[in-house]
Amino acid sequence: MDAGSWGGQDGTDGGCGQDLGGHTTGTRFLSEVVAPGLNSSVPLLRHYAKLVLTAAGHRDLDDVLLVLGELLNNAVLHTRSGDPSGLVAVDISDAGDRLVRIEVADDGDRAVPLPRQTGDGGDFGRGLQLVEALSVRWGVRRSFPGCMVWAEVLTMEGPPPPAASLVSLEVAAA
After folding, report:
1. Cα–Cα–Cα angle for 105, 165, 87, rounded to 5 degrees
2. What residue ranges of the chain have pLDDT lower than 70?
3. Which of 74, 84, 95, 154 could bridge 24 with an S-S bond, Cβ 3.0-4.6 Å?
4. Helix count (H) and strand count (E) of the chain?
5. What are residue 7's phi and psi, to 5 degrees?
6. Residue 172: other Cβ atoms inside 10 A
7. pTM (2 decimals)?
8. How far is it, in rounded angstroms, from Cα 53 to Cα 68?
């Protein structure tokens, strides 16, 4: 990513020290998980989020999981979270009817990222453009010691899973 300032779909931008978005009113916290800032943590955290959101009754999670993967990859690749002792934290909230809020907190920037224009031949640089395209809203907030990037993504809500599914989720998360 190029050096610059964070921006969000809400039209504001500025340094990570500026709060560029608050919580949606009426959010229901579902889960938080902290993991090592490793590439191998990304698919595990995506799977964990899928279990949590499925247990909460959300369906059609492809967009949410893709956005989460992009935010996690950015944290691992472009912040101190990817250093040997680095960590990433993921918060998952139900933000209303068919809306999920995903937050990824990192250990601080090596450089301040900005969505960039890429040519057709580039393999990298489209992550935040993808986040912007798939999210209802997204932005960034300061969180000690780094930044927390959030995105709100639509899903379909279905009936709650059977009680047996919830039990297996608790076992899997333990």
Report:
1. 15
2. 1-25, 110-125, 157-174
3. 95
4. 4, 9
5. -140, 160
6. 10
7. 0.74
8. 12
